[in-house]
Design goal:
Length: 126
């Protein structure tokens, strides 16, 4: 009986570790966004760009300024910290929206898929 409880405890521990690892995955923020609120210099709707490589996140603002950000140690799964600006930003679980501490909000731009059509192939007899 003791052996069965040891096996079930081991399996339970392994399942808990696997569930924790899966829930610790972060969203990929790479993409084009649009500034939709509190944009600088009145640039409402201007494109912004985010590139994520592992933990490092590169941001290009609506005014063309480039910054580097990292996961915020306080909430690494939902916030980034921009050291050069001394501010953070929270992002939605699906990565569709980024809201900065100063009130700016970026919304991910979803473009329609690109459809590539090939020309018909013509065969000529010789």
């Amino acid at each position: 009986m003791r052996r069965i409880s040891l096996v079930s405890a081991t399996l339970g521990l392994m399942a808990a570790c696997a569930a924790t690892a899966a829930s610790a995955e972060t969203v990929n923020l790479t993409g084009t966004y649009r500034c939709i609120q509190m944009c600088r210099d009145g640039m409402l709707g201007a494109p912004t760009f985010v590139t994520q490589n592992g933990d490092a996140v590169n941001l290009t603002t609506e005014t063309g300024e480039a910054y580097r950000a990292w996961p915020d140690w306080n909430a690494p799964l939902s916030r980034i910290w921009i050291e050069a600006r001394g501010e953070g930003a929270v992002y939605s679980p699906d990565g569709m929206r980024i809201q900065f501490d100063d009130g700016r909000v970026w919304q991910r731009e979803i473009l329609p898929p690109v459809v590539v059509r090939r020309a018909p192939v013509a065969y000529y007899a010789r």
